[in-house]
Write a structure and sequence with these properties.
Order of helices and strands: EHEHH
Shape: elongated
Strand content: 15-25%
Radius of gyration: 14 Å
Number of helices: 3
Largest sheet: 2 strands, parallel
Oligomer: single chain
Number of domains: 1
Helix content: 55-70%
């Protein structure tokens, strides 16, 4: 089976449907590549992308990791 590409916007939080998709692909054991998208748009909107953009990127990565941990080991 082909891997799934899951796009997440840099400046938005992880939506409920993202959680649903991740839950489904994990159940079906589909390899998934998470792509954080619209970095260029964030640069244009922020006009300075250094620390602020890095913080947003780290925030999204932490959100996805937390969600994956919850899906693997539910409370």
């Amino acid at each position: 089976m082909e891997p799934l590409l899951l796009y997440i916007k840099l400046k938005e939080s992880v939506y409920r449907q993202t959680e649903t998709v991740l839950r489904q692909v994990m159940q079906e054991k589909i390899k998934t590549i998470v792509l954080i998208n619209q970095n260029d748009k964030a640069i244009l909107e922020l006009q300075h992308y250094g620390e602020t953009m890095l913080q947003q990127l780290i925030y999204q990565i932490i959100n996805i990791r937390t969600l994956l941990k919850l899906l693997i080991m539910p409370i």
